[in-house]
Amino acid sequence: MLQQTQVKTVVDYWNRWIRSLPDIRSVAKANPTRIHKLWEGLGYYTRARNLQRAAQVILHDYGGRFPTEYGQVLALPGIGRYTAGAICSIAFNQPTPILDGNVIRVLSRLFGISGDPRKRRTNSKLWKLAEELVQQAARVRNHRPPCSHLNQALMELGALVCTPKKPQCDRCPVAKFCVALKQNRVGSLPTVSARKTTSSIHQVALVAEIRGKLLVRKRPAGVVNAHLWEFPNVQLGESSARNGAAKRQANGDRNNADSLRQSAARAFRMKSSDLSPLTSIKHSITRYRIHLSVFRTAHAPPKSAATAAGRWLTRTQLAKLPFTAAHGKVLAQFFNP
Ligand code: SF4
Predict the structure, then answer these.
(1) DSSP H or E stretch at residue 315
(2) What is the pTM of this model?
(3) Which of 140, 158, 164, 319 is the most buried (most CB within 10 A)?
């Protein structure tokens, strides 16, 4: 849950999860829809699916007990080098290294390492350094548990003191060893490469309601937000954020409610007089900035790619399903305008 997500966001999710699925067996046996519902809003849903697959492997291959060997932990679905290192060092005090964004920043500054940490050469150098440090820690005799504490200390230092902006070097416990501080390079380390260009996407969605039932569909496997639910929607266009002309076009469309309604009507093969605007939502997925214009209708749309495999469900049924973040907001606004 904590990957790419802050602790304060996770606390409520964690409490809900542990109340519903308190052990490995219950996670392994849970209905996948329940897993998605408990994860709804946290994003990166592959993590939730992998968590369940890992629980199933632990149940079948290890009798329900979490493995303690690094190789076995690394082989579990969804667990990479960083997570395996964190589990083995923090839970079992093994000398396994960790390297996340916070640790990269601390090590780059502390040891004055330049070069893009995402590039193989610098990344390997940082992993090697993290490994040497945790192995040194394992030799410390009068501190228990040394590997666990070293790795947690590195993460906490990066999260609370050696922050990306305005690091608090004056209260840093390792300031006297810090190469970046000595060489006045704190602001330039770690080296960050140029961000990927963002793209703007404009989508239209349809909330069709007939006799208290709404038309929704489940996203297929293998796409972003796979297996989550949403209203039928269609992409109108995509433009690079650097492409001024395309952006102006998108903005122009946005400002022109009538032309937008006509575009939506064409996309869903309906009459524009059958559609009325419900809401519009802006959200981001990876490098995409998505503008979602939502229309409501009291007519059933004809069959199309957007409505294929759609299901008409009641409000009670909808409440049990996991929705994508944006379409969850649409649902909430529909029932609580
Ligand atoms: S002295 Fe400053 S730059 Fe160096 S590790 Fe501490 S907080 Fe980071």
Answers:
(1) helix 315-319
(2) 0.75
(3) 158
167 Cα nearest atom in ligand 1: 7
Candidate from 105, 106, 113, 154 with most ligand 1 atoms within 8 A of CB, to mutate: 106
Measured in angstroms, how far is the CA atom of residue 190 from the centroid of ligand 1? 12
Distance CA 188, CA 185 (A): 5
Is 175 close to ligand 1, i.e. is its CB under 6 Å away? yes
> SS3 letters for 232-257?
CEEEEEEEECCCHHHHHHHHHHHHCH
| pLDDT 10s digits, 196-250 | 788 899 999 999 999 999 999 999 888 888 899 999 999 986 665 444 434 444 4
CA of 118 to the centre of ligand 1 (A): 21
Nearest residue by C-alpha to atom 2 in ligand 1: 169
Write out pLDDT tens, residues 31-46.
999 999 999 989 888 9
Residue 110, ligand 1, Cβ within 6 A: yes
- Taking the C-alpha atoms of residue 112 and residue 258, their distance in angstroms, rounded to an integer, is 57
Residue 176 CB partners (closer than 8 Å, separation 6+): none
